[in-house]
Amino acid sequence: MLKLLLCCALFAGGYAFNHGQAQLDFEAYMRDFHKEYANSAEQNNAQYYYNYHKNLITQHEALANRNASSYHVKLNQFSDIRLKTFAARLPQSVYPSNSFHTMMPVPPMDQAPPQFDMLANTMTLTAQDQGTVCSSSWAYSLAKSVQIMNALQTSNMKPLNISAQSLIDCAGMGTGCTTQVPQIGFDYLTQNPGTSLVTETEYPPNNSINHEGMCLPTMTASNIVVESYGIIADSNDNLLMRYVASGFPVIVEYNPATFGFMHYSSGVYVPPVHAQASSSQFLVILGYGHDTQSNLNYWRAVNSFGSTWGEDGFIKIVRSPTQPIAKRAIFPNTLI
């Protein structure tokens, strides 16, 4: 009987210690990602999914460390919500029936080199953060593509971030935080001759609200004017590669509704054959190459989940003819 009581006491003590450590870990997570919850019920729900995802991450990392997975995952700003909620916050985009001011794209090089990276010339590029409540990657990807193209054209290795918030507020058309697409932003810029993009210093971001704000007047502009944009047909990855290698940062629509993308940390991400939902996140393709460790070809893209997600905000996605990435591909064609 004494042995049984001692065993139960040891078990209870061990459980209390583990539970206490779990609480401390969640509190540290809240501090690290500046989390605040409306009430105890909401916090308890967040802690449940934090613990759930933490266990899944541990399981995945055990596979990745044995080279049974080509990519790694980690806790991030999305770890306290369920995958279904993550997908719902990035609803599938809705496209207009017409396009305006689209010119024939500048011809790319005839044949792309085996690998290419726009940032290989030591350009300093920071991944911006759209937050967790506004599906605004359409605006962030547009701003980033123009920023990169202008930096390459002017040999500016430390370009200032262009304000995505100005596009959300001024070109969002009521859906700037839900189902909007980059084409609407490009149409807004090209249909209004002389419209210049502004920097985040002039028009600061506000990623804590779940709706677009009022379009504010600006005192100064960046003098970067988008004259036209180009489009690449769906699934034409060969043409996409040629344009990227020619120095065009191309925006693509990607489905992020998977645990792996949601928690991506490093390596070459290989999506499952079937995602659990259909969502939209716009990425800017900056290059491509080959990963020797996994023996996989990849695309390199910058996301707008901030620098704590992925490889300092960037991601490598498997490059394969069976999983084309060219979807709704669009890019700034000419800047003046």
UniProtKB/TrEMBL annotation:
Pfam families assigned to the protein according to its UniProt record, in alphabetical order: Peptidase_C1 (PF00112)
Keywords: Signal
Ranges where the Peptidase C1A papain C-terminal domain occurs: 112-333
Any single GO BP term: proteolysis
Lineage top rank: taxon: Eukaryota
InterPro entries from the UniProt entry: Papain-like_cys_pep_sf (IPR038765), Peptidase_C1A (IPR013128), Peptidase_C1A_C (IPR000668), Peptidase_C1A_papain-like (IPR039417)
UniProt-recorded Gene Ontology molecular function terms: cysteine-type peptidase activity
Range of residues in the leader sequence: 1-16
Similarity comment: Belongs to the peptidase C1 family.
Protein name from the UniProt record: GH20868
UniProt source species: Drosophila grimshawi (Hawaiian fruit fly)
